[in-house]
Amino acid sequence: MPVSQKNSVAVLTHPSGASAEVHLFGATLTSWKVDGKERVFVSKQAVLDGSKAIRGGIPLIFPVFGKGKAPHVTASLPQHGFARISRWTLANSSEDAHTVTAQFALDHTTISIEHRELWPYDFSLVYTVKLAANTIETHLRVHNVGDKPFDFNTLLHTYFMIPDASKVRVIGLSGCDYTDKVLQKSSRQEGDVVIRGEVDSVYAGVKLSDIQIQFGEGEGGIQVHKNGLGDIVVWNPWIEKSAGMADFGDEEYHRMICVEAGQVAEFIALAPEGYWEGSQVLSLL
Ligand code: TA6
């Protein structure tokens, strides 16, 4: 079966042997394997029982990035919004000669009453995961199905498995202005991004579509091809922040980097009946 559902996990299996797993909780992709090797990072201490966002994989951020700020309507929502902590449904699946596809759905009638009251807009999200032999695409479509305009952020909060954070380089952001949330200042990226401590940087309006994560000399890497997503967030909690997260091992920061494509610097306005879509395609270097 190219797409099957075991309990609350959709499993995609490609004829090449590639596979992916998506928890219906948050429509969080928690595994992407190519050549038998796991390519996304999920903390060994991640909570998978639906009681909190999954620490790893690709949490789906909507309708707000971070903590909303009053008087914006998102100010009362949980950090990073409700999509990653809501129960989605596996809406349909399909396959063709090259890909296996699963689609997940969430809308204003299926989120919790609490979240509905905090964010009273009629919406429909369709999240599509398309697995090929060596790539995986994650695509989000937002539809305003109500009679009130709303605005939103969205982000594919992707955690990548890496051999060693001290060797990783993120290529494609040189010359981009960014907000350094660690030093609380604006800056301009000079050269590749490297990890020498906590990194929490928001690059707005990144012109390049392809951002590369190089694992180290001769150790390969992953390319993020973004479409309709203008911003990139790079995050590694390093030592202190790792120690403060109950669902993250103290030493796990060595083995992960978040390179997150999204629309977070500005809110996207969506008129009644309006659609918005954005996606990323991950491929091996
Ligand atoms: O994407 C980076 C970030 O916004 C960091 O500031 C950090 O808060 C991270 O997300 C994880 O957030 P979470 O709510 O999942 O603990």
From TrEMBL:
Any single biological process term in GO: carbohydrate metabolic process
Task: State the reactions this protein catalyses.
Answer: alpha-D-glucose 6-phosphate = beta-D-glucose 6-phosphate
Q: Which residues cross the membrane?
A: none
* Annotated positions binding substrate: R55, Q79, R84
Question: Known Gene3D superfamilies for this protein?
Answer: 2.70.98.10
- Offer an example of a GO molecular function term for this protein: glucose-6-phosphate 1-epimerase activity
Give a GO cellular-component term. Answer: cytoplasm
Q: Which Pfam families match?
A: Aldose_epim
Keywords for this protein: Isomerase
The record's EC number reads 5.1.3.15
Active site residues per record: H157, E260
- Which InterPro entries does the UniProt entry name for this protein? Aldose_1/G6P_1-epimerase, G6P_1-epimerase, Gal_mutarotase_sf_dom, GH-type_carb-bd
Which top EC class is named for this enzyme in its record?
isomerase
What is this protein's function? Catalyzes the interconversion between the alpha and beta anomers from at least three hexose 6-phosphate sugars (Glc6P, Gal6P, and Man6P).
Q: Which PANTHER family match?
A: APOSPORY-ASSOCIATED PROTEIN C-RELATED (PTHR11122), GLUCOSE-6-PHOSPHATE 1-EPIMERASE (PTHR11122:SF13)
Instruction: State the family it belongs to.
Output: Belongs to the glucose-6-phosphate 1-epimerase family.
Name listed for the protein in its UniProt record: Glucose-6-phosphate 1-epimerase
What is the organism of origin for this protein? Modicella reniformis
